[in-house]
Amino acid sequence: MAFLEVRDLCKTYKMGEVEVPAVRSMTFDVNAGEFVVVVGPSGSGKTTLLNMIGGMDTVTSGSIELDGVRVSDYTPKEVTFYRRYDIGFVFQFYNLVANLTALENVELANQICKDPLDAGDALRSVGLGHRIDNFPGQLSGGEQQRVAIARALAKNPKLLLCDEPTGALDYETGKAILKLLQDTCHNTGKTVMVITHNQAFERIADRVIRVHEGHVAAVTVNDNPDSAETLEW
Ligand SMILES: Nc1ncnc2c1ncn2[C@@H]1O[C@H](COP(=O)(O)OP(=O)(O)OP(=O)(O)O)[C@@H](O)[C@H]1O
Ligand SMILES: [Mg+2]
Q1: N or C, which end of the chain has less CB nearby within 10 Å?
Q2: pLDDT exceeds cutoff 90 at 233
């Protein structure tokens, strides 16, 4: 049994009379500790997929099992705890609280967790030990994303979900963030899923899930993925 099993997953949004099929039957597995890249063009259903896996959106049909538990059957209350305890999120636009320091931003998230890591340790692990007392406005975009990653990791989640984590960053900074995510995955054994529309990221993944128009077009396993350092796009 795989760590994450997605089966015949569908999501249809109803906009009045109109039905928008965002995810039309996706099936794939992810193994524990893999660095997974979900790649596809705009509108192909990547964010919808990740939101369902992360308990931020409900499933229209099909199932999601994480670590042996069918999370797609969770009640609303169970989903709340699932989001809090089991899932770490990283978004394109960091979503930090502007009037809290880097350390306080991570501590804030830790308050709703069961078994969080030390906030200072989490920030040091992303290379920000020297900036823990800075406010987001005093940090560069790349540094703010590192705070967001530290905040997600400090929850000690089962699964780290990242939606276009480099989307707002310049080339070199984006590469450094991808390297951090890849290293974190391989050094800590944490399972990491990264959404991108950039096909260049495929060769750094342990597993590539290519999506197109709400379907899984292909799943590829790389036995020897490249380091994010070597990326060029
Ligand atoms: N809350 C929603 N209500 C209605 N339609 C939605 C909603 N969320 C997404 N959709 C539609 O579902 C489809 C898939 O959207 P989704 O955001 O998952 O794509 P994506 O692959 O993440 O695209 P992008 O790369 O632009 O972020 C799109 O047609 C989108 O308009
Ligand atoms: Mg998206």
Answers
A1: N
A2: no
Whether ligand 1 lies within 6 angstroms of the CB of 129 is answered as: no
pLDDT digits (tens, 9 = 90+) for 65-97: 999 999 999 999 999 999 999 999 999 999 999
Atom 29 of ligand 1 has which residue's CA nearest to it? 43
Q: In 3-state terms, what secondary structure has residue 35?
A: strand
Give the pLDDT confidence score for residue 232 in this predicted structure.
Answer: 87
Q: What are the residues whose beta carbons fall under 8 Å from the beta carbon of 110, sequence distance 6 or more?
A: 116, 117, 119, 154, 155
Distance from the CA of 47 to the center of ligand 1, in angstroms? 7
Q: How far from the centroid of its chain's Cα atoms is residue 153's Cα?
A: 11
* Residue extents of the structural domains in the chain: 1-86+159-172+189-233, 93-157
pTM of the model: 0.96
Kindly give the distance from the C-alpha atom of residue 175 to the centroid of ligand 2, in angstroms, as a whole number: 19
